Inverse folding.
């Protein structure tokens, strides 16, 4: 079995909150220290998307029925609890490909932890595919988890926070870009 993984090993401070970056290896057993995953078995409670946000930026992951091994959920780069939430239940994890996931958890926070007062309903997903352009409005707070953006000629490489303070900006994706917008 692989060593236990600490989901807060790589933590990014983002607009006063903490986002954990986790790297999962394919075809290995995983055990998290916080008890979310034990020997590749994960229990997903009802309404979990109100407590946690996950965003996969690379790789492929499946949830399997622990008895039949039937695939009940698949998550690939660009999938998140915002656009493709996993079903509640107890499942077996299967990392088909190495996967990087960015997580913002509310329920693991202590009362004085920055995430304890976050309203996850005010966070949306940011996706911009390689070569696409978009306008980013003044006042936008973007956590670019992966990829690179050229914003009005200045390049930004994820992971990093970007705040559009002065005026609306034009952005070009250099590679597939995924992240969260804090509203």
């Amino acid at each position: 079995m692989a060593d236990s993984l600490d989901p807060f090993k790589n933590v990014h401070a983002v607009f006063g909150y903490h986002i954990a970056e986790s790297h999962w290896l394919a075809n290995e057993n995983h055990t998290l220290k916080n008890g979310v995953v034990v020997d590749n078995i994960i229990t997903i409670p009802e309404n979990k998307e109100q407590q946690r946000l996950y965003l996969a930026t690379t790789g492929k992951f499946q949830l399997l029925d622990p008895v039949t091994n039937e695939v009940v959920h698949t998550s690939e780069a660009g999938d998140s609890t915002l656009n493709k939430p996993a079903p509640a239940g107890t499942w077996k994890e299967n990392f088909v490909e190495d996967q990087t996931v960015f997580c913002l958890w509310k329920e693991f926070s202590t009362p004085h932890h920055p995430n304890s007062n976050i309203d996850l309903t005010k966070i949306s997903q940011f996706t911009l595919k390689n070569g696409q352009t978009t306008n980013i409005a003044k006042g936008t707070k973007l956590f670019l988890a992966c990829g690179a953006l050229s914003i009005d000629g200045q390049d930004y490489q994820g992971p990093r926070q970007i705040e559009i303070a002065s005026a609306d900006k034009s952005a070009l994706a250099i590679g597939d870009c995924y992240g969260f917008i804090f509203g």
User: Anything to note?
Assistant: Residues 1-8 have pLDDT under 50 and may be disordered. The chain has two domains: 10-105, 119-182. The radius of gyration is 17 Å.
